[in-house]
Amino acid sequence: MKMQGRRLFVELTVAIFVTACLGFATSETHKPSRRETTVTFATTTMFKNGTTLPAGNYRMEVSQSSTTSEVKFYKEHNSRVDSQYVPEDLGGGKFMASVPAEVVAQSKKNAATKIESVTRGNAQLVTTIRPVGWDEEIVFGQSGKDRSTAKRN
After folding, report:
1. What pLDDT, on the 0 to 100 scale, is given for residue 141?
2. Domain regions of the chain by residue span
3. What is the signed CA dihedral for 142, 106, 34, 27, rounded to 10 degrees?
């Protein structure tokens, strides 16, 4: 009788441990339907569809509800502490533009935020953004996805 009790205890302990491990493993791979980060554009920035944003700090929000994602840009209200930019908590800011894009998976996480662009007149035409810590890149203006909405002042 003692052996059966020990065996049952060991089996239950193993079952709880395995269940807990599986729970942690699946929570790490879950992607939210919306991701956010901050980006800084040093100069006037354009996108292939004609959307233009002035230089500044923006909260970039990427919806991943379908194969074509919508990227929304919100103007960040920044503050300075000892002459160093400190972004406000994500979730605020004035809506500036919405641009269609494609989210492309990468094999490893981005070590730093990188913005790929080409010069067009006095502005930079953004083609790709790779946010720090993400294992995706955001590609703009590909495959005819050239519609956007921009808030008019």
Report:
1. 79
2. 1-30, 34-150
3. 160
- pTM over the 0.70 mark: no
Q: Following DSSP, what letter does each residue of 103-118 receive, concatenated? A: EEE-SS--SS-EEEEE
Cα 87 to Cα 24, 73, 77, distances in angstroms? 31, 14, 7
10-36 burial, b at 16+ Cβ within 10 Å, e below that, comes to eeeeeeeeeeeeeeeeeeeeeeeeebe
B/e letters for 105-143, b = 16+ CB within 10 Å, e = fewer, are eeeeebeebebebeeeeebbbbbbbbbeebebbbbbbee
Query: What is the H or E stretch that residue 8 is in?
Result: helix 2-29
Q: Which backbone phi and psi does 146 adopt, to 5 degrees?
A: -110, 30
Weakest-pLDDT range from 17-31, 34-48, 65-79, 89-103: 17-31
